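Entry 14. Ran structure prediction on the chain below.
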Amino acid sequence: MGPACAHDFMQDQDKKRTKVVEYSEAYDKNGHWFRLVPARGQTGWLYVEKWANDHRYRLVAAKANMRVYRKEVGLGGIWHYTEIRLREGRLRVASWLEADTLARVLRLYRLPPAMVVEPFGFWGIRAKRSACRLLNDLLARFGDDPIEGSSKFHPADWDPTTWLLAGFAALASAFSLSLSATTSEFRFALIDDILLVLLKPAAILAIVSWVSLILYEKVVVRRWETVFPRLVGMTVTLFALGLTSWQTIPDTRMDFVHSRVRYHCVESKNPTDACKQAVEALPENLRLRLVHHLQQKTSKLH
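Output, structure tokens:
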């Protein structure tokens, strides 16, 4: 191997080693996740205390250069411990999870008494992801990178109430579209028109639902842990979803009526009789709305 090849080979090896160090998380002999971060002098403890107060951690042990905080995470019964030590101008942040007996019984003993803080897995994943988010906030205050793999979206990141709202949004949208489609006429020739008519309200409902869920999760769930603010947030979100679903019904119903009448009055082989029968088959309120709409169209043409 020549000098140039040897130099390239050593550069490749250095890159591989750098990548491993940069993207791998460290665990101590007890299986606890840990990270060394700059202490920022004596003000480092101020950042730690502010972080603990913001997230309602409880101080359970303290010495001259060591503190241990605890907080309940997940669906209950799982405790997140964070141990912080000041060493040689750096803070050593260590963290782990512990499940109490009730939490393990409710999960059929699938949870071990102690768990590793990591953004992966199945059992206890909500608690693990929550612990990662809390630690990421602490690391960000010291200008450090988040835990590997914890920044990507995971279904366990959403609160159970958010998923309940998502289910309501899906049901409300399905109900709204189904009720609107009652004025349609299901014929093979009308399939394209039916899909086009449904596309607009479906897009509106999808956008409003997604924005409402994101706002509820990011603004309400992440900022308030008490019951009352979440009830208020759920009520406002449900009202917005329900109102949007209800508001789309009249216009969508009329769009279906227009599609149906246009087919019988323009594209039918016997347009006169087919058009008359199609209009007479409409409920009276829809006939009146159709006539009013056609009069408006006619007045605009003149």
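The beta strands are 26-27, 33-38, 58-62, 66-73, 78-87, 90-99, 114-115. Will compare against last week's run tomorrow.
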